[in-house]
Specification:
Radius of gyration: 20 Å
Helix content: over 70%
Largest sheet: none
Strand content: under 5%
Structural class: mainly alpha
Number of helices: 14
């Protein structure tokens, strides 16, 4: 865990994730200032995740075909272009889609590099550190982005641009590791290979479990962000971006705690044992939806985050290990990104439809928590039956 490459990855990831999350709240304010309807705010996420879905067949192969540090640097360049576009006042939806393209390229490289710089016995711990770095960045980025977007939108965009530049410079100093799974980069062969990768991972029981669990979790997490934006003015009677961003930060802080516990308490072969935490997340979301006091909401968000961190870190490590042994860790993460972002696209889309339909936000949030909890209960019981049958 003293690897220089690991620390460079962690620092660059912190800067990049901080900028991503500050940019989201600045983009939300930009949409509001442009007098777009309130229900269009989650559409920002649809442009972001749409880029992930479209690029999923290609970015994993790119991450495995080139030194991953250079891939990270190029991906931050795309994010920088999106941040600059917003700074210049261009369409926020298109600009945020460009940031999504950079994030799509960044993800398989940042996760895929871990099996190359860490021993297998340190992989869960390394994931814990990476998730902790990401979540601390989410915490601070959400707070800073929410605060600055309320008082000075251009300053918020300026900080985002600077952080993307810093992240790209740090990426440059990551050691040039040789490609693990070099392959052709022609579009049609890449699509064929991606289809094969999906089949290989889906037929692997452990990889399939990880793909389903993490996709559901991140789909719910993306929806929760916009749920908070809609819920805070109704339940707490507080306007502006600052309070939703603070509650997002509380969730992030909880994830740091949960990820740290998982990193030190859960071994790779025990990863499926975290599934009951997913069931509890649904219960916690229901409790949150009916909390009418700020301190109750803070406590509920902290619990949701802690359960989420404990749940997702071991499942991520499990997929990386199975992918590293089969299709390549970068390609495995690209498949994961396709499914996760498809889940985000569908769930945030469903939330948008609920908003357009006029469903009360408290009831919509409680219903969302119920459906998520039932799905996680099904996943847990199904996996348990498979393990007993084996």
């Amino acid at each position: 865990m003293k690897s220089k490459a690991l620390w460079l990855v962690l620092i660059a990831q912190f800067c990049s994730a901080f900028a991503d999350n500050a940019l989201l709240f600045a983009a939300i304010m930009m949409v509001r200032n442009a007098a777009f309807p309130e229900w269009s705010i989650p559409v920002l996420q649809s442009f972001f995740t749409g880029a992930y879905i479209l690029l999923a067949p290609f970015v994993g192969a790119i991450a495995d075909a080139y030194p991953k540090g250079r891939v990270l640097m190029a991906a931050n360049g795309l994010k920088l272009a999106g941040g600059l576009a917003m700074f210049l006042g261009l369409n926020p939806f298109i600009a945020y889609g460009l940031v999504g393209a950079g994030a799509a390229a960044y993800s398989p490289a940042k996760y895929g590099i871990l099996p190359e710089i860490l021993a297998a016995e340190n992989l869960v711990k390394g994931n814990g550190w990476l998730e902790a770095s990401t979540i601390v960045a989410i915490l601070l980025g959400a707070v800073v982005g929410g605060y600055l977007s309320d008082i000075n939108l251009m300053l918020a965009f300026g900080i985002v641009v600077v952080l993307y530049v810093v992240a790209a410079l740090i990426n440059f100093f990551i050691p040039r590791l040789p490609p693990v799974h070099p392959t052709t980069l022609k579009p049609w062969p890449l699509l064929q290979r991606f289809a094969v990768d999906v089949k290989v991972l889906w037929r692997d029981t452990a990889a399939r479990l990880s793909l389903i669990g993490t996709s559901a979790f991140w789909g719910a997490g993306a929806t929760l962000r916009f749920m908070l934006v809609a819920w805070v003015p109704v339940a707490l009677a507080i306007s502006g971006n600052a309070m939703p961003s603070l509650l997002n930060a509380i969730v992030a802080l909880g994830v740091v705690i949960g990820a740290a516990i998982a990193g030190y308490k859960v071994r790779l072969h025990d990863s499926p044992r975290v599934l009951p935490a997913g069931c509890l997340i649904g219960i916690a979301i229901i409790a949150f939806s009916f909390s009418g006091h700020l301190y109750m909401a803070i406590a509920a968000c902290a619990v949701i985050g802690a359960l989420g961190g404990f749940f997702v870190v071991p499942l991520n490590a499990l997929l990386q290990e199975r992918g590293h042994e089969s299709v390549g860790s970068g390609s495995a993460i690209a498949v994961q990104n396709l499914l996760e972002n498809s889940a985000m696209f569908l769930l945030t889309g469903a939330w948008t439809v609920l908003g357009m339909s006029g469903v009360p936000v408290v009831k919509a949030a409680a219903g969302f928590g119920l459906v998520f909890g039932l799905f996680m209960t099904w996943l847990w019981l199904s996996n348990r039956r498979l393990r007993l049958a084996a």
